[in-house]
Amino acid sequence: MRKETWFVAVLVGAGLLLATMGALSSSPSNGEKSDFEGFDSLDEATVTENWKRYFPAQYEGWMRTSEMQETTYGGGGKAAAEDMDIEKINYLEMYPFLKVNYDGFPFSKGYYRSRGHYYALTDVVDTERLPDWEKRPATCIGCKTTDVSKLDAVHGDDWYSMPFSKVVGSNTIGCLDCHAAEDATVRHARDWLDEGMAHGTFANIEPEGRTDLVCAQCHTNYHFNAETRKVELPWTTGLTVEAQLEHYDAAQRSDEWVHPQTGALVAKIQHPEYELYHEGQEVNVHSMLGLQCTDCHMPKATDSDGEEYTEHHWTSPLTHVESTCMGCHSNWGSGGVIARAEGVQGRVYEKQNRIGRELAEFIEAVAEARSGETLDEVTLTRLQQIHREAQFYWDFIWVENSNGFHNWGEAHRVLDKAEALINEGMDVLDSV
Ligand code: HEC
Ligand code: HEC
Ligand code: HEC
Ligand code: HEC
């Protein structure tokens, strides 16, 4: 063997060894599924650590939701960190127009960019939105903890109307939210999703057999029932933004409030990832191809025994395009995929912020006109109606967490509608 060849062989050997060690440390064994014989009690199953010895690879992914990776438009934090004090991104400081648009509603008091599932409970415990735990509804933990299954079992729907202080525990989102305690099969733990689906208003998708319904437990728009305070999905008339506005128009909902500056009744939209991705009037190529949330956010991986498992680190897919996008987009190269995705996001991001500012200016202009003498009742009512609708359309896209990636055609359509309404309102103001 020539000296150089030997040298190369050693290098390759070392490389292989390192790669093996890397594989050992970064992807633990999937565990012996046969070891798992179910949990004896819900108490045991609500604690995610208890699943670790049966399913170490999935557990390890879940743990990594504590590591925030910032991308150009997404990711939950500014740096990787494992403690709870990781710097949070304060939306109210970053986008001052939000204080005007959400004036009179708790979101004007505290609003941060979402973080990983690891922080869900901490972030709702710490929120400045409703500091008094006796007045804050228990419903707020509905999307933040595995305790929901136990609360349902013990109290039925009665727990929703208890004070927050009575129900808050120490478990964040975990295995039990998506897997059954008896046999670990994929399931969803929130019956409000079944009630929402029972309206039968899905237009574009067939929910049967989909694994991504687990995400629809929490990544949808919702409001509370006015009496029971239980979560309700605003899907009685459909899932598109127009259908949901119709739903809100039919009765005043808990997430509506009278805006102090214009006197309009406006609604707060919450993270409609599921609706924007799968529904909408514009065709979304990725949903049409049959891709589910889980295909991009939970790609398949291989553990140290060479066994395939599902990645449980929910984060931005742009941090690992090789396993999520390249199967279809290899011709763009990984850099090209990210550049195109960010190109799509950049156009939506610019537009949603511009319209957010325009909405704030419109609100302030209406407030000024209202404080004068010249505005008659009919004109004011018309301006308030315009405010209600423009804010509904703008917020639907603003609070959706993908900056348009999940359905960019629909995002532009809905934002354009908001802007046309604001322009119409400004014309009305100019004419008085
Ligand atoms: C075709 C791939 C794809 C599918 C399918 C998909 N997403 Fe996404 N998702 C993305 C990309 C890309 C982003 C943008 C990430 C970024 O900005 O860094 C994103 C962003 C997000 C974010 C914000 C994450 C962050 O880092 O700020 C959430 C939450 C999310 N998606 C949830 C969902 C849910 C729920 C579904 C199913 C209804 C879904 N996604 C379906 C690709 C996908
Ligand atoms: C039990 C409710 C719940 C379920 C189920 C759930 N999520 Fe989340 N998700 C949340 C909450 C709450 C946050 C924000 C946590 C925070 O900001 O502290 C979040 C945050 C995220 C983020 C943002 C992470 C980041 O880095 O910014 C992604 C991505 C995400 N979820 C994807 C998914 C996907 C995909 C599914 C389905 C496989 C899913 N989630 C299921 C409640 C849920
Ligand atoms: C937000 C929902 C969600 C949470 C939380 C969740 N899983 Fe999963 N899990 C899934 C989905 C979806 C699949 C894939 C199902 C499929 O593709 O057939 C899956 C698959 C699995 C599988 C089957 C093997 C594999 O990897 O495909 C195991 C075992 C598993 N999860 C264990 C866990 C454990 C342990 C936890 C907690 C540390 C956990 N899961 C948390 C949604 C979740
Ligand atoms: C199942 C195959 C498939 C997967 C997986 C997939 N895509 Fe696509 N994607 C398509 C198809 C098909 C189109 C439409 C045709 C085209 O533009 O090439 C498309 C279009 C796009 C576009 C629009 C291109 C443009 O500039 O107009 C972007 C951006 C994109 N995909 C990004 C992604 C990202 C990011 C991921 C991973 C998170 C991903 N795709 C995963 C099939 C896929």
Tell me the total number of β-strands.
6
Sheet with the most strands: spatial strand order: 1-2
Helix content: 40-55%
Write the CATH fold name.
Flavocytochrome C3, Chain A, domain 2
Mean pLDDT: 88
- What is the overall shape? globular
N→C terminal distance: 92 Å
Bound molecules: heme C
Number of domains: 1
Tally of contiguous helical segments: 19
The secondary-structure element order is: HHHHHHHHHHEEHEEHHHEEHHHHH
CATH superfamily: Flavocytochrome C3, Chain A
Q: Would you tell me the structural class of the helices and strands?
A: mainly alpha
How much strand?
under 5%
CATH architecture level-2 label: Orthogonal Bundle
Largest sheet at a glance? Answer: 2 strands, antiparallel
Radius of gyration: 24 Å
Low-confidence stretches: 1-28, 79-84
Main location: other
GO molecular function: heme binding; metal ion binding; nitrite reductase (cytochrome, ammonia-forming) activity
Keywords: Calcium, Heme, Iron, Metal-binding, Oxidoreductase, Signal
Protein name: nitrite reductase (cytochrome; ammonia-forming)
